[in-house]
Specification:
171 residues; 3-stranded mixed sheet; two-stranded antiparallel sheet; alpha+beta; globular
């Protein structure tokens, strides 16, 4: 797979992965997310173009089983495992981790209800929280650069359900 068109995106993914690895090292006993846990995969995501085309490029380079089109389930979920786990989008990488979320000028901490039980979540410090707004701003900026270079509408959202669609190929 040619990773050059996705270099900025890959840099962001690497930073997120580093954060998650550090968090697992610090708080692993409070994180139940693990291979085979697919509770958060029971929805069809809409992705920014950079995320969609990165996933689609990875899918084209991989040998994958025939996709199962179950209603409301990610098409990349196969027997409880993500077929493109190493290439999963930002939302999949961050799901379950403690997120600092800003809404209407207020901040709150959110994560998967299976993680950080027993009041541990409220005791986490700033270096153990992923600031969701900052991640989203970086992702949107990277997407704009990617889309502008390919004359794609940066504001469009593409359903992950179209991942195997032959008419949705990278321009």
């Amino acid at each position: 797979m040619d990773e050059k068109p996705f270099s900025q995106y890959l840099s962001l993914l690497s930073r997120i992965d580093d954060f998650c690895m550090r968090l697992r090292h610090m708080h692993g006993r409070h994180i139940s997310c693990s291979p085979g846990c697919s509770a958060c995969c029971n929805q069809i995501l809409n992705l920014l173009p950079v995320e969609f085309y990165y996933l689609q490029t990875a899918a084209g380079a991989a040998t994958l089983p025939e996709p199962v089109h179950a209603q409301g389930v990610c098409p990349l979920l196969h027997k409880g495992t993500c077929l493109l786990y190493e290439h999963r989008p930002v939302i999949c990488r961050t799901h379950g981790m403690p997120l600092l979320v800003e809404e209407n000028g207020l901040q709150r901490i959110d994560c998967c209800p299976e993680n950080f039980r027993e009041g541990v979540l409220t005791a986490l410090s700033g270096d153990s929280l992923l600031h969701l707004e900052r991640v989203n701003l970086l992702l949107v900026s990277i997407n704009h650069v990617f889309a502008a270079a390919r004359n794609i509408d940066a504001g469009q959202r593409i359903s992950i359900a179209q991942i195997f669609s032959p008419e949705k190929k990278l321009p």
